[in-house]
Amino acid sequence: MITVLSGGVGAARLLRALRNEIDPKELCAVVNVGDDLVLHGLTICPDLDTISYTLAGLNNDELGWGLRDESWRVMKELHELGGESWFGLGDRDLATHLYRSQRLDEGATKTQVARELCQRWGVDIDLLPVTNDTIATVFATERGTLSFQEYFVKYHHDIEVRAITIQGATESRPTPEVLNALRTSSRIIIAPSNPLISIDPILQVPQVRELVRERRGDVVAISPIINGAALKGPADRLMREFGYDVSCEGVATFYDGLIGSIIIDETDRAFESAIRSRGLDVRVTTTVMADPSHASQLAKAALA
Ligand code: FO1
Fold it and tell me: What are 244-264's pLDDT values in tens digits?
């Protein structure tokens, strides 16, 4: 079994490529739920949905989130009513949130609902929310405390962050499926997701960081920082704000004690020896999954 600690888009593309290299039944993802929100009474799980839509071939590539062939009639009506329409929920996407919310209301867990949706869409990789308890990533900013999606969508992550807190993490419990995956996988891959706001919420769930640390010889991280910048999102800006070098070496510092290897991009080859001198194994390859052949090269490196 191979386990991938996963945020959204970068993890989804990596899982799609890994699925072509190994039997999908031997692949599972431990997914961040710190971005989850309840809006209009509906439970929305952006990272779980981005991954399952991508693996099902249903993802909206232009937006980077949501479903393809989307329409926006409900949002338009809501906007005209003066309702909250800053967070875009497409008509097709709404069906997912209606389904999930109803099932949660009936007593199902996020883990069960993720499995049901994956089965419906023919997704053969086990997508495991790290916890079935509610955790929420919140930001202390110059404009006060913001929820994840307020920071990310309302303010376009273009605002100074002073502190990041994962509310509810200390009291949360990892699921038995997650503990089993972390204990029994032959390899744990940390996807090229944002270390501070996609991977850290996973690590903050009790027992997860300790288990990853115990397994560090089998843990490989893929740097989301390439040539001093993130391909997408605020990873570079947040790393700077929190005192990390904005480089693959800064990523190695962030994961200090948790990983045995790191995969860095070809453009960052100059960092290889410095990272190696910390006792880490370093693989240099293309990490930009711009097309299937590059994604396959990265997947092979992560499995090698
Ligand atoms: N991102 C946006 O930039 N604008 C949106 O209106 C938006 C809506 C949305 C709805 C459902 C969903 O699953 C994701 C959505 N996202 C949207 C993406 C999301 O905010 C972030 O990309 C992730 O939380 C970060 O991984």
Answer: 999 999 999 999 999 999 999
pLDDT tens figures, 70-118: 999 999 999 999 999 999 999 999 999 999 999 999 999 999 999 999 9
**The two three-digit tokens of residue 186, written as one number:** 């032959």
Ligand 1 proximity of 153 Cβ (cutoff 6 Å): yes
Q: Which residue has the tokens 């590539």?
A: 61
Please give the Cα distance from 139 to 241 (Å, whole number).
12
Domains, in order of start, for the chain: 2-138+168-303 (3.40.50.10680)
In this structure, are residues 232 and 9 in contact, taking their beta carbons and an 8 Å threshold?
A: yes
Nearest CA to ligand 1 atom 25: 8
Beta strands in the chain (DSSP E): 2-6, 27-31, 37-39, 42-44, 126-129, 136-141, 144-147, 161-167, 187-190, 219-222, 225-226, 229-230, 261-265, 281-285
Return the ligand 1 atom nearest residue 47 CA. Answer: 26
Beta-bridge mates of residue 281: 261
Residue 20 CA, ligand 1 centroid: distance in Å? 27
Amino acid letter for position 38: V
Q: What tokens appear for 198 in the block?
A: 């996609």
Question: In this structure, what are the phi and psi dihedrals at residue 27, rounded to the nearest 5 degrees?
Answer: -125, 135
SS3 assignment, position 190: strand
Burial 90-99 (b: 16+ CB within 10 A, else e): bebbbebbee
Greatest Cα pair distance, the chain, in angstroms, is 60
Alpha-carbon distance of 295 to 288, in angstroms, equals 7
Helix, strand, coil percentages for the chain (3-state, nearest 5): 45, 20, 35
Torsion of CA 62, 64, 70, 74, to 10 degrees: -130
Residue for token pair 């960092």: 271
